[in-house]
């Protein structure tokens, strides 16, 4: 009877020891799982921090992009205003050139009339010199010569004015060419800005 009790006690002790070992193994597994859980939590926190940092960078990039867009719009407005001023200047220059051309035509017509009158006066003087027979005719000769001289001086002034007009026309043509180049450059810049926008 005592031997059976002893065996039963031994079996129970053995089961108790096995249960204790299983408990220890379970405890170790639990600790390992807890460590893994803590490590996972740390990784999750690190990922969250990285995500927040990335979000901040994204917001900063978005702000820079908006600021750049504002600068681009400002530059576009400046270019459009410059283009309007350039077009107005070009119209003013074209109107001035038309006025100059009209004045030149008037001067050329006046020059032609003076040349005709001068030629007529020279012919009249030649006729007077050939046909003069009285003192009265001779007395008129200085007045006629003075009139011819004044006509020649007027013709010289007209020629001088015509040369100045031609120089101004050349200068205006160069300005118009320069403005046209700038106009096309600004127009190209505007198209590029609109394409980017």
Keywords:
197 residues, mainly alpha, Helix Hairpins, 2 helices, 97% helix, rod-shaped
What would you say this structure looks like, in words?
The protein is an all-alpha fold. It has one domain: Helix Hairpins (Orthogonal Bundle), CATH 1.10.287. The protein has two helices and no strands. The longest helix is centred in the middle third of the chain and has 130 residues, at 2-131. The two termini are 102 Å apart.
* SSE succession: HH
Report the radius of gyration as a whole number of Å: 54 Å
Shape: rod-shaped
Share in helix = over 70%
- Overall CATH class: Mainly Alpha
Number of helices: 2
Largest sheet report: none
Question: Could you name the CATH topology?
Answer: Helix Hairpins
| Class based on secondary structure composition and strand pairing | mainly alpha
CATH architecture: Orthogonal Bundle
What would you say about this model in short?
The chain has 197 residues and is an all-alpha fold. The chain has helices at residues 2-131, 135-196. The chain has 2 helices and no strands.
Blueprint of the fold:
Elements: H1 2-131, H2 135-196
């Amino acid at each position: 009877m005592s031997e059976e009790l002893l065996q039963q006690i031994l079996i129970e002790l053995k089961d108790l020891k096995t249960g204790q070992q299983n408990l220890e193994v379970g405890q170790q597994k639990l600790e390992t799982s807890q460590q893994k859980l803590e490590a996972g939590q740390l990784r999750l926190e690190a990922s969250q921090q990285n995500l927040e940092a990335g979000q901040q960078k994204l917001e900063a990039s978005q702000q820079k992009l908006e600021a750049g867009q504002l600068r681009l719009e400002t530059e576009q407005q400046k270019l459009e205003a410059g283009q309007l001023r350039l077009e107005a200047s070009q119209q003013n220059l074209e109107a001035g050139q038309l006025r100059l051309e009209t004045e030149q035509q008037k001067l050329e017509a006046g020059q032609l009339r003076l040349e005709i009158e001068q030629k007529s006066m020279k012919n009249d003087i030649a006729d007077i010199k050939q046909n003069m027979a009285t003192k009265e005719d001779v007395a008129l000769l200085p007045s006629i010569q003075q009139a011819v001289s004044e006509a020649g001086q007027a013709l010289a002034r007209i020629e001088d004015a015509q040369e100045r007009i031609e120089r101004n026309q050349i200068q205006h043509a160069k300005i118009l060419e320069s403005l046209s180049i700038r106009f096309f450059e600004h127009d190209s810049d505007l198209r590029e800005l609109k394409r980017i926008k």
